[in-house]
Amino acid sequence: MTTTLDKLHAILRRDLLTAIRYRSGFVVTLVGGLTELAAFYFLSQAIGPGFRPNGNEYFPFLLVGTGLYTFFVMSAQSFLSAVQEAQQTGTLEVLMTTSTNPAELVILSSISAFAGNLFNLLIYVFAGVAVFRASIHVNFLSCLVVLLLSVVIALAVGIAAATLQVAFQKGSALLWLLGSGLWFLSGTLFPIESLPRPLQFLAHTLPLTYAISGLRGALLDGQTVFAMAHTVGILAGFGIVLLPVSLAAMSFSVRRARQDGTLSFY
Amino acid sequence: MDQIIFESVRKVFRHRPAFFNWLGKERRGETVALSDITFSAARAEVLVLLGPNGSGKTTALKLISTMLLPDAGSVRVGGFDAVHDARQVRRQVGIAVAAERSFFPRLSARENLDFFAVLDEVPRAERASRIAEVLQDTGLEEQADTLVMKFSSGMYQRLGIARALVKRPKVLLLDEPTRSLDAGTTAHFWTTMRALSVQGTTILLATHNFAEAVAVGDRLLLLHHGLLLAARSLIKGDTAESLRAFYFRTTGATDEAIETIGPSCDPVIGL
Question: B129 FRET partner, CA 20 to 30 A, in A25, B154, B223, B266?
Fold first, then answer.
């Protein structure tokens, strides 16, 4: 008997083998991450110790904001790239004729795409602490809860991008929006209180704002889950709404693509 | 009992031009890929779909595999409806598509087969032995651990057939399976298909190759512009030449090989 765990293992193995066979890929990612950290470190040094957003030192503030933002965008990007590549090679059509339910396949594939980027996030934060001496005060349980909820929301965003790709062959449009519009609204580089009121209101409608704020609270201030109940509740609400909606949209777009014969269009 | 029932099936592809299409020449319109087609295939039968490009052969296979949904009519496989019981249908159907590169390029042949076998819910205990078996059947044992990005067209095609076989499907759908294969591999493939049929597998074979149709087929359907022009059994006396003559007589197309070279020459076998 083949279980969902067997399938997840097969997909993780496929993606891991593919990743390590792009020999220089891991090294490039590592060097890129370290360079980015160095830039943020020297930026915070240049600004000086007087700037303490939300009571935190600036470098740890940047470390969490940019790390989680990169996790969101890169995870959605890698899942979307997998869907685009499957369309181009014709693998997507074949995958849709296997005995595995398309919704199950989409979720397992996205989990795999996100697992790699979660690993990158952990390395990024670890390097920030070990190499650049970022001061942290961790509450592990809170970190775990915020990360889990962030992963669920990021999964929903990735599935939404893949839905746009299957339906209109334009999943990259959503990622463009994420990449260009959200970073300054979600408190990645500076506190959202610095924004004008209308933009602050907009910032409070974005799940990434709460994910970044929650992870800062858990990783830098050691806040308990109870102390962060408001943020955790909002993140859970986003997850509960966004994941089923994105899955339903994906299911609808796959069905429409099967009707129109556009499953392999790109 | 019929393993596949195709009843009054219609499939139309509608063209939706891109936004700002006034920059290009693409216009709205539709292509009728299959028009009110009805046929069935019995258990262990090898049914050949013959017809020129664009006749609807691949569309018929994709409808049976659930890759596509019909606009009208019904497709049933093993008693299950391809629209409402799609998962049950997928469990019974293996398809070897014409798209050669539908694999993960940085995985080996064995790793690709293992991946698809898991998604096709092949029991863990049987997976390795089944993969070894289909690699042997398709002559890919020596290339089993080579990354498929290094494969030739023929090797991709053999791997596609191996993938379709690894789940031991009750219904096997083959789209021009020997297009890129050499003569020896093609002959071995035909033997394998006949053996599968004897074991009870229903096979639908879309081909342009008259010799292939005669070698493995029990019955053939002749499709033309989405219409079913003819259905007939293939009998012992049939040859590639007689089938070719039947094809041109029925479709009304001109056999240019004979027209231009002359009737004294042997016609080229194939479309």
Answer: B154
The two beta strands, B72-77 and B80-81, are antiparallel
Q: Which of B14, B62, B118 sits opposite A7 (nearest CB)?
A: B118
Write out the DSSP string of A46-102.
HH-TT--GGGS-HHHHHHHHHHHHHHHHHHHHHHHHHHHHHHHHTHHHHHTTSSS-H
Q: What is the ipTM of this complex?
A: 0.83
| Domain with residues B2-261, CATH architecture | 3-Layer(aba) Sandwich (3.40)
- Could B119 and A99 be called an inter-chain contact, meaning their C-beta atoms sit closer than 8 Å? yes
Rounded to a whole number, what is the distance in Å from the CA of B182 to chain A's nearest CA? 24
In angstroms, the separation between the Cα of residue B16 and the nearest Cα of chain A is 10
Contact criterion met (CB < 8 Å) for A99 and B87: yes
Give the per-residue pLDDT at A111. 85
- Nearest-CA distance from B250 to chain A in Å? 29
How far apart are alpha carbons B123 and A169 in whole angstroms?
36
CB pairs under 8 A between A and B: 96
Instruction: Among A99, A256, A266, pick the best mutation site for testing chain B contact (most B Cβ within 10 A).
Output: A99
CA distance A37 to B252: 72
- Tell me which chain A residues have a C-beta less than 8 angstroms from the C-beta of B90: 97-99
- Tell me what the mean pLDDT of segment A186-207 comes to: 92
- Using a CB-CB cut-off of 8 Å, the residues of chain A touching B104 are 14, 18, 91
B78: Cβ contacts below 8 Å, ≥ 6 apart: B3, B88, B89, B92, B170, B171
Closest chain A residue by Cα to residue B148: A18
In this complex, do B111 and A89 lie within 8 Å of one another by their Cβ atoms?
Answer: no
**The two three-digit tokens of residue B201, written as one number:** 């597998």
The distance of B259 to chain A (nearest Cα, Å) reads: 38
Cα–Cα dist A34/B80, whole Å? 56
Cα separation of the two ends of chain A? 35
Write out chain B's pLDDT in tens, 271 residues: 799 999 999 999 887 665 555 566 666 678 899 999 999 999 999 999 999 888 999 999 999 999 999 999 999 999 999 999 999 999 999 999 876 678 999 999 999 999 999 999 999 999 999 999 999 999 999 999 999 999 998 899 999 999 999 999 999 999 998 888 889 889 988 999 999 999 999 999 999 899 999 999 999 999 999 999 999 999 888 899 999 999 999 887 766 554 544 443 343 344 4
User: What is the full DSSP assignment across B12-70?
Assistant: EEEE-PPTTGGGS----EEEEEEEEEEEEEETT-EEEEE--TTSSHHHHHHHHHTSS--
Q: Do B66 and A97 touch (CB under 8 A)?
A: yes
Every domain of chain B and the residues it spans: 2-261
What is the token pair recorded at B36?
Answer: 């009110």
Do strands B219-224 and B227-233 pair parallel, antiparallel, or not at all (unpaired)? antiparallel
Query: What are the pLDDT digits (tens) for A95-117?
Result: 889 999 888 888 888 888 888 88
